[in-house]
Amino acid sequence: MKTDDTTVTGVRIGGAEAGDDEGVRTIELPSGARAEVRKGYGRDLMRAQRAAAGGDASAVVFALIAEVARVDGRKIVYEDVLEMDLADVMALQAEVIDENFDRPPQRASQASSNPDSQSRN
Fold it and tell me: Which of 58, 82, 69 is nearest to 33 (CA)?
């Protein structure tokens, strides 16, 4: 078994750096720090929900950030996110949510004056 095949509770240990993985985006945070954000998976959400034991939605998002992001090449934990500058947290939150929660395209609204929909008295 190669070192990059070793996992502990679903987290890969050793092997390639996060920046080498496909689907990792690098962003510069407002503080000047560089963050790498990878695509999230169901297991990431499950771990985030466990970390935020109270079930608070905001806490789950913070824990999810910690699951999928590295800052300045370093793995972060939930408590690190709590201590970050607000602008950095907001940038990471937007990046994590935008990447992992695709929204369906907006449908064009139809005019309410459609002659077929008018009642005939």
Answer: 69
* CA end-to-end span of the chain: 78
Which residue bears the tokens 């034991």? 53
Q: What are the residues facing 71 on neighbouring strands?
A: 35, 74
What distance lies between CA 78 and its chain's CA centroid? 13
Residues of the chain with pLDDT under 50: 1-4, 14-20
Q: Which residues contact 89 (CB under 8 A, 6 or more apart)?
A: 62, 65, 81
Number of residues assigned to the chain = 121
Global pTM value: 0.66
Integer Cα distance of 101 and 90 in angstroms:
16
